[in-house]
């Protein structure tokens, strides 16, 4: 249905005089439930669909969208896009990706696994309640629940353009997570845990999720401050992912052509230690961001983003590539699955190697300057002595400069957090300023 709809819309665009056109259609369904303290809080079923049309009249571009699939609404959407294009200025970088770049080998990546609970709210509620009850029973210091949520959904999508390209994608995604509160008064602490997967069997058991959430919450009780100083810092796997995210933001085409990145003109430059690497792997089975083509229909390919510590390339779609005088890297719409090289067994090995310092398990605030690379964020975690965790820590700030932090990475563990398309383990940064007690 969506493919046929896309073809009809492209024909409307051609009839309206557009020199090029592209259409994206999607249809999503889902169910989400939340429970707290053994009671159901919300049950919400969703069904969304939409169409986005972009037309080009030479180098002028116009876009419009609608959620109404009625013929009259679709015709009006095309007319609106054409009207916008006729009244915009020429942009030499606009237009479809070159026809020769379109993907021809369209694959499946084992990403379609609908979960029957989408049509069985009672079972979804039972699973959420089981996770919450396991957490509440795990430790008497758990005084309250901050809720447990289960979500499940499927998505169908089609991208088509006037080069004759039609790409179809379908995927499912499911999640279950709990959060708890331990302690009382000013000593209360909150934490949680969640599991996510494309197939229901990839999720952790509800009871395991609840227990782990409770354990993480209790572990944070009676935190202390640490003396302000310069210390090595280990970022847990889920926090290390954010450091990779800052790299991606700095080498994204939009930031580069706007001159709003601390990594301008850095392709071919050593930013990391020689052993460090990041590979983009778009063809992984059950990968969160697997795909044969990007958001412009360009064929994806396996390639290195960082190799032997050297930044190999930027992250570009066609528009940003043209603005920079470069070629697209098939990253319109973002990166696909990333795999970060590891040189250590896991978190325990990194802590032993660090000896004395800080383990960060939570980051707060938005204190990152993408233009200068300056980094300053609120943090919580654990103080480490002799390679062993001694006590929880909160109310501190970790600071540095991202370029210096990248160069100071001493280790990455094999303890990959599987809940993201950025696959990275815990990360040891050799020295950062930690602001705690005077």
TrEMBL record:
Show where the Metalloprotease TldD/E N-terminal domain sits. Answer: 21-85
| Keywords from the UniProt entry | Hydrolase, Metalloprotease, Protease
Q: Which residues form a coiled coil?
A: none
Q: Give a GO molecular function annotation for the protein.
A: metallopeptidase activity
Q: List residues of the Metalloprotease TldD/E central domain.
A: 120-221
Tell me the superkingdom of the source: Bacteria
Under the cellular component aspect of Gene Ontology, which terms does the record hold? Answer: cytosol
Tell me the ranges covered by the Metalloprotease TldD/E C-terminal domain, including all copies. 228-436
GO BP, one example?
proteolysis
Task: Return the similarity comment.
Answer: Belongs to the peptidase U62 family.
What is the name listed in the Swiss-Prot or TrEMBL entry for this protein? Metalloprotease PmbA
């Amino acid at each position: 249905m969506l493919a046929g709809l896309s073809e009809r819309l492209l024909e409307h665009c051609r009839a309206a005089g557009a020199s090029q056109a592209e259409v994206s259609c999607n249809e999503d369904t889902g169910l989400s439930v939340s429970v707290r303290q053994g009671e159901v809080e919300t049950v919400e079923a969703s069904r969304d669909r939409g169409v986005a049309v972009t037309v080009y009249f030479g180098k002028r571009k116009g876009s419009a969208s609608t959620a109404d699939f009625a013929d009259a609404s679709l015709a009006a959407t095309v007319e609106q896009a054409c009207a916008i294009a006729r009244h915009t200025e020429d942009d030499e970088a606009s237009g479809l990706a070159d026809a020769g770049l379109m993907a021809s080998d369209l694959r499946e990546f084992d990403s379609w696994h609908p979960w029957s609970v989408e049509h069985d709210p009672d079972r979804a509620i039972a699973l959420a309640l089981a996770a919450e009850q396991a957490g509440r029973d795990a430790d008497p210091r758990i005084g309250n629940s901050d809720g447990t949520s289960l979500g499940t959904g499927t998505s169908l999508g089609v991208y088509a353009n006037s080069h004759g390209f039609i790409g179809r994608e379908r995927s499912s995604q499911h999640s279950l997570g709990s959060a708890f509160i331990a302690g009382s008064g000013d000593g209360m602490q909150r934490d949680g845990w969640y599991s996510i997967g494309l197939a229901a069997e990839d999720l952790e058991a509800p009871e395991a999720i609840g227990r782990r959430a409770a354990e993480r919450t209790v572990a944070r009780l009676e935190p202390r401050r640490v003396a302000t100083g310069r210390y090595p810092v280990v970022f847990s796997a889920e926090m290390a992912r954010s450091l990779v995210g800052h790299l991606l933001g700095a080498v994204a085409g939009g930031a580069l052509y706007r001159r709003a990145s601390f990594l301008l003109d850095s392709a071919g430059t050593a930013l990391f230690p020689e052993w460090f690497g990041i590979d983009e792997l778009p063809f992984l089975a059950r990968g969160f961001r697997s795909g044969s083509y990007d958001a412009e229909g360009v064929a994806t390919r396996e390639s290195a983003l960082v190799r032997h510590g050297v930044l190999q390339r930027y992250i570009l779609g066609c528009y940003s590539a043209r603005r920079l005088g470069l070629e697209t890297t098939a990253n319109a719409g973002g990166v696909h699955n990333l795999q970060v090289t590891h040189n250590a067994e896991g978190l325990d090995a990194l802590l032993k190697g660090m000896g004395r310092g800080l383990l960060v398990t939570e980051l707060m605030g938005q204190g990152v300057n993408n233009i200068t690379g300056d980094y300053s964020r609120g943090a919580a975690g654990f103080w480490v002595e002799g390679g062993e965790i001694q006590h929880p820590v909160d109310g501190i700030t970790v600071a540095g400069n991202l370029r210096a932090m990248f160069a100071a990475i001493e280790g990455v563990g094999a303890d990959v957090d599987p809940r993201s398309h950025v696959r990275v383990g815990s990360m040891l940064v050799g020295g950062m300023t930690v602001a705690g007690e005077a």
